[in-house]
Amino acid sequence: MAQLDQYRGGWTDVEAAHLLRRCCFGFRIDQLENAVRDGLEKTVDALLTPLPEPALPIDPLTGETFTDKPFSPVNNGRYTGLVKAWWAEQVVAAPPSLQEKMTLFWMSHFVIEATAVQSYVFFHDYLAFLRKNALGDVRTMARWITTSGAMLRYLNGNVNTAGNPNENFARELQELFINGKGPEIEAGNYTTYTESDVREAARVLTGWREQRGTGVVSFDVRRHDVRNKQFSAAYNNTVIRGRNTVAAGEEELGELLDMIFAQEATERFVIRKIYRWLVNADVTPTVERDVIAPLGKAFRAAEWRILPVLRTLLLSEHFHDAAMHGSQLKSPADFIFGTMRSHPTFRLPADATQRYTLTQNLSVNLRNFQMELGDPPSVAGYDAMHQQPDYDRLWINTATLPLRNGWTDAIVAGTRQRQGAYDTIAMVDSLPNASDPYAMMDALCKHLFAVEIAEDMRQKLLQDVLQEGGMVYDWTTEWQAYKAAPTNQQLRTRMKTKLDRLFVYLFRMAEYQLI
Question: Model-level pTM greater than 0.90?
Fold first, then answer.
């Protein structure tokens, strides 16, 4: 298990930045300094500490909560957008933590589509549950998701009855949520389950429904298939005894999940997906043997609690291998949230209307970049998180790259309608020894880039971009003059023009797309 032995190498801003990039959506210079000071183990434990539950979303028009009130069909579209903005708010405001990044992972694993569910209440319940349990017990998550109002609507569980079984959820529970397909034996039959297993699982799940008027989820034994359910050799020919009592739904569901989680494939399936999310899309045979397999065993031994598995991974030699630095492309969430959260003075507005306007704008940009919160393109989740062989490379294409460039241009330099939100002067002022052009550029590149840039590129950035062909050493005089009179509008405008030009260039570099 050498790959999973605890990392004992150097612990500098380079290694600490890699850990924070993979676990958080961006970080400030002071947060990086804290991680270097605290050391690897203390930093990992802090990243794995659950965050407090947030307050309910607020309607900025009324100043009141709405997800705990009777459902309002006429407001469904607007309130669904506010729930998405509410989660964006949690991400932007969070301290360094893995919880929000794992919440997004589970949104692409236990998938629903909010636009299909058509209930902001169910969507909020689903999102709040994933966030609260993001570092928790995966079996408990699977149990709750199965009979949640959102999932019953999304995969038709609420119309799954003894007389008219619906196989949608039963199929995805096995194929996408718990144990995966495995190699195909024959058309429709896999090593982990068969078509007959889909049918039998659907029969187990008959009788669950949600009341359209109240949203209350219940089990109706009159709609339940009370016959025995016979599973295939993939599940050791297990028989789940049919029942005709009010407890039948809970009891048979529990046995179904016990049966699926008992399968050996289950312990690797979820771990493999988390590995691709946090470490690398390329799961080689060596990684499968030395990382995925032992982590899977630990996952089972921990009774499906994911936190101890994540701790082992984040502390491991494998995770901190220098080859992993910059080995992935940023997701839209890493790109957008990470850019904003990297700024030392960026804070959410105190005013609720302004706050929701900002977070809704961030949510809309995520949709434009092909990662709409709570609305993956299919039940399989976001394409870049499951489609082989490209995986994360799918985040960047001829449509999304110009949008990324345009967005960073706008937040730095502004548009005709509004000023840029990214204060480049404040960003440079947060760096140590900002008056030294080479020290400033080195600190900036270490903070923004997951890989080291070449010496000729550093010189180009300083001389051709920052100084527009002028002398590099003039930067020291210019910066010191500005610092001596920061309220001088002429000096500030000159400095902002210079730094805006630099940051527009930096954010457009290929290296900025790496994580």
Answer: yes
